[in-house]
Amino acid sequence: MSDDHPMREKIGVSAALTTPFDDTGAIDWPRFTAHAKRLLQTDIRVVTAFGTTGEGVSISASARASLFEHAAGAGIEAGSLVECVYGPSSQDAGDHARRSLDAGCAGILLTPPFYFKQPTEEGVYRWFAEVLERAGSASRDVILYNIPGLTGVRIGPGLVTRLRLAFPQAIAGVKDSSGDWQQTAALLAEHRDLAILVGHEGDLARAARAGASGSISGLANFAPELIAKLVRGEDELLIDNILDRLLKLPVVPAVKAVLAATTGDPAWSRVRAPLVPVQDTDGLRPCEEISLLVQDWLASASGRTTQRAG
Hints:
The protein is an alpha/beta fold and 310 residues long. The chain has helices at 7-11, 29-40, 61-64, 67-73, 90-102, 121-135, 148-151, 157-166, 181-191, 204-209, 224-231, 238-246, 251-263, 281-309; strands at 13-16, 46-49, 81-85, 107-110, 142-146, 171-176, 195-198, 215-217. Strands 7-6-5-4-3-2-1-8 form an eight-stranded parallel β-sheet.
């Protein structure tokens, strides 16, 4: 377990794509692919589909099944996509993982089982093992998704070690969205050679300095350049300003409201039940403020770059 996994270089900055919906609630594939292409022309190397920010758990497997077909039709290579895979059935998750990997995706973001609460580490290990065995020889480039605030399951260094020993060709990294610095530091201490991807942007710069390789970030939907700076290990006070506003709101609808304000396209505000859109003034105002803060920061950064070039 000493050589760095190639996933460390593959991901870097990935946007946890928001999913646009049309007025019937179906995935708006033209908006989806246009947004992904736009991000892939910035500092983004890989985009992640149907994660938490993408409301993937609220979208049926059949609705998601044409992801790679739509991406190819828009000129997006499968190798530019990570797809988030959910259970809670290990059989369903294994079949989904195999389909995504067979399509040529960059990797899968594998969410732990989330229905039965407080499972033992042994039970979680067995569930992941069943998924990977079901996926079979296709198993590769698996990023374990540690988001205990939503799943109720903690993926600690010991569990990662067990899975790496049992499936050495499959485990590529961990996305740590715990927001717990001690948890992040523990993963870095024991698994620095994997792609440790930090979901909480407030910890991202110091995590990068400690050896984290990147981030799968919801904020990268509207501020990819800012997230790229943090991934380089450079502090930026703007991130605290953004998070101070954003975390007072339901995060996924707020990210979509910021994107709607940034693009001038109100369709981005649509969400799937059980979420509801940000609508009242107290919610929309901070989202609009975030959009303006990012645009001002980009203009300032562009001005500094121009001055240096001159």
